[in-house]
Amino acid sequence: MLKTLNINRYLESSLFKIVLNEDGDILDMTEAVKLLMPKDFIPHHISEIFDQSLLEQIEKRLLLLKTETIADQNVLIGHLEVPNKKCEPCYIIYQQYSGRAILTIKIGEQSYKLNQLYESAYLKATMPMALVNESGYIISTNDLFLEIFPDQTSSELIHLQDLFYLMVPTSPFTFEEYILKALTQESSTVKMSYTSKGIQRYQDVSLTLDCKTQMFILRIVDITEQERLFEQLAHSDQLCTTGEIAASIAHEVRNPMTTLQGFLQLLEHEVTGNAQMYVKVIQDEVKRMNEILNEMLVLSKPAVDEITIFSLSVLVEEVLILLRPKALFDQIHLENEFNAKGSLLIQANPNRIKQVFINLLKNAMEAMKANDTLSIMISEGDQQNVDIFISDTGAGMGEEMLETIFLPFVTDKPGGTGLGLPFVKKTVQEHGGSISVTSEIGKGTVFHLSFPLIPVIV
Fold this sequence. Notes:
By secondary structure, this protein is of the alpha+beta class. It has helices at residues 31-36, 52-67, 109-123, 143-148, 160-164, 175-185, 224-268, 274-300, 312-329, 350-366, 399-404, 420-430, and strands spanning 17-20, 26-29, 73-80, 88-97, 100-107, 129-132, 137-141, 158-159, 168-169, 187-196, 199-210, 215-222, 308-311, 333-339, 345-348, 373-380, 385-392, 434-440, 444-452. It has a seven-stranded antiparallel beta sheet. A five-stranded antiparallel beta sheet has the order 2-1-5-4-3, with helices on both faces. A five-stranded mixed beta sheet has the order 14-16-17-19-18, covered by helices on one side. Helix 7 (224-268) packs antiparallel against helix 8 (274-300), helix 9 packs parallel to helix 10 and helix 10 runs antiparallel to helix 12. It is elongated and about 120 Å long.
């Protein structure tokens, strides 16, 4: 047995404490531990008093003594096994001191179960968590933490600063100030950005000091949705301001445009040859500019059109009659499916709803090629709604395009204004409806519209 260290000088002798060297040899123990042992039995190695599971946990940490890595404190769970005595469940607080390991043994079924409860709550917590010792090393992590940082395991001691290298602070930040604030104010929080599998997420990373153990609890709260909501609100404010300016400009521009259009009509009859062709091109462009101005004005002001009750299936059939010649010319299969027992009535402005379907169907046809299929299905929903699905087997859209598809002036069509789908969304929502879209590149797109259903009085 190696030279003993008199731990009773600095440890309470009434506690169950033992001191080990790096090989697991017992250097000394308190009087309380000796009383646990059978008469005339003096253990010399931890293998004589702990079960195999607990023995492996302790030996794993003793290896750190040889590599001079500081692990300060861990909680280990197992059983105390001594000759001629009942096997007792226990948990151990493992610490290092002056090149030695100090084990504080807690015995008792109630304490064991309570520790199991705490450990389970920690491991299964709904947020990523980790335990950090006073030297800044992460000594334990829960399940969610490992999902975010799969390369960091609880068996590998890494420093908190190394973990922070994987994340980017969203404001000026120094690691030293972060730790100092946690030490002096018991809690410190910083907002970080972390990219995993190509997806950027935002997190509040807080470090809280536990005064009893002098260890830190690291908590990571995902605030990505909150940040995106703030961005959307800021973007909405910008769009609102931009819309007001655009509406004002549109009103001002329409007057000179009307004058220009009138003089072009007069000029058309006075020119010949190539000049007449040039006038025709200018007239077409002026007409297109007027259409853009009209769409901008529609988006910037609330609807004041007449609201009536009408059959949605009848209106859709009217739209299909208009578009069937184009579908036939482009060799696109046009299908219509109606799944309802009776008439499906909605309350809206029929002209504006008709324009909604024209816009969606024309967009779909422009994204399709010969022999593709465009279908529109109407059915009664579960909650007094009427559902419309417009599906195509066209080119489809990627995730980036889907996120911005309803924003003004966003388009991938040559010569497109990017105002059609914003008009569609605005019109649907003004009539109490909803609209969503799913798409996959190379497979096609599905628009889902829903309107409140007006019950039929018999």
